[in-house]
């Protein structure tokens, strides 16, 4: 007599993403709910492969069907402590569910899981959060705009001053390549590592980039000055959008307008792949990157992030722009690049 009623009850459970059938069911749910690339089990597994931070997730089901999904990465850092992030090394995440009650059940379950795993902090990078979560909508903005039909229309969609910089970049005597070969990967890491060191930030391990390239629809676009890579970006493709995710340029890129050339070439490339949107990713509100994207004609959209800290613990602070880390940032900028590249991945794999 109880079986029919049991089938109608809801349950929230942890998942094992190493099970192919389980992962496939969740991938289908993410597609159905129009989730981001960062909601995908493939992203969680790539992060685990590339950084060692464990892929986890909470699933809400009813009558055998998925009704809610909360992707999680268990992040451990000897410097910044432990946390559950939705999702690790991502700018989006949080609960995917059509019902607020289901979303709240998942976020409550995340707090319980965090305590069991000795993670005093949970971060949700988007999605629904409960009343006892600290929610911020002023820290970061996202930038998304439609891709235009052709190069000239794309240029005309960009404000005049930035358009002039792009035209200078288009006249530069450089070579642009796109691919995922070892040459592409080596060039990208070389440029990206130098770029983030100059910003005072530890570089992620190259194994993270390799894992993402191997598991997801992604590629690398690089601008070369002769034999030297001067700007390079690793981009993600998902649901008709291209997202330039990990990119940067060397000091030599400035005079060549190589960063401007790089992003315009990526727009060309993505349009040729059938993309209809350019997702410029997130930037800290008011930062240099924020204004750079506005100069391209992108309208900033505030992002909602939420965090929960277990009673008796201090909130986790791994934000490189916070006042607490400014002396470390200044010191990191002065490190010789080989030293920064050796130490950076050890620290950065724990940032999450």
Automatic annotation (TrEMBL):
Top-level taxonomic group: Bacteria
InterPro entries given in the database record: Acyl_CoA_acyltransferase (IPR016181), BioF2-like_GNAT_dom (IPR038740), PEP-CTERM_FemAB-rel (IPR017469), PG_Glycine_Bridge_Synth (IPR050644)
Pfam families tied to this protein: Acetyltransf_6 (PF13480)
Signal sequence, start to end: none
NCBIfam families in alphabetical order: pepcterm_femAB
Protein name per UniProt: FemAB
